[in-house]
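dumping this here before i forget
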Amino acid sequence: MSDPLPAAAPAPFTPVVLVVDDDIDILDMLSTALLDEGYLVLAATSAEEALQRLEVAVPDGVLLDAVMPGMDGFGLCRALKANPAWSHVPVVFMTGLAETDHVLQGFAVGGVDYVIKPLRLPEVMARLATHVKNARAARMARDATDVSGWGTVVLDSRQRIAWLSPKAGGWLGGLFPDLDAAAAWLARTMQRGSGTHPAGKGQQLLARHIGDVGVSESMFLLGLVEVKDADNALVHAALTPRETEVLSWIAKGKTNRDIADILGMSPRTVNKHLEHIFEKLGVETRAAAAVIAEKHGL
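structure:
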């Protein structure tokens, strides 16, 4: 009997970049450089053409000319960010407009970076690669939270919803009249670190601010909890699985060295986990952390 065939290796990730510029020479130059770097390229000479491309395929990054006839790059970026299916895509502006007002306008409509014309290709490629990589990693992490039972929302610097996972979108869409109202609730929650909103059927929607991401963006985890659990300190603490394990052993009276041996880590690493646990629970001693763990049956 022949040996079974080995499992096929996963196909390598090939990023797709949309290039938008009304200058054909620049479009050709960038398309050639991107193909040489291993990207798949979508090209458009206007905002209208770009929107048609986006209806067919969602790119991993956009190189966008700021000044074009008809809808300019700022308007296109605004439209892109207003569509949940495209809002996660990083936009790098290409512009001869180096004045501060134009740069700020690019960031205000959702751009993550800009390069000045005449373009220096190595700089363009380096900036684009960084943003594509970061955006892909962030999206994979955000999608993973949906699988684990949590949703994710990101607010931009103006406290507008810049991105939300499907699960978060379903909850917020069902509990708030519109996304602006949901964003306002999240902004208030950010000041306290966490907060809840009635969700019916004995449940509440819990939001936890877990920190800043990107340029002045704030990320939140959302999840449904039973009303009786809404004041549970552990629910609000956002402990990682490893921190939860460490806390569980603390509640059982184990020393740092004992925990290190049990979990296969160094005592220094256990101590670092404890620092994070104390900070998240708002306590200063092992005894106080152990009391919370025991109270909630950890």
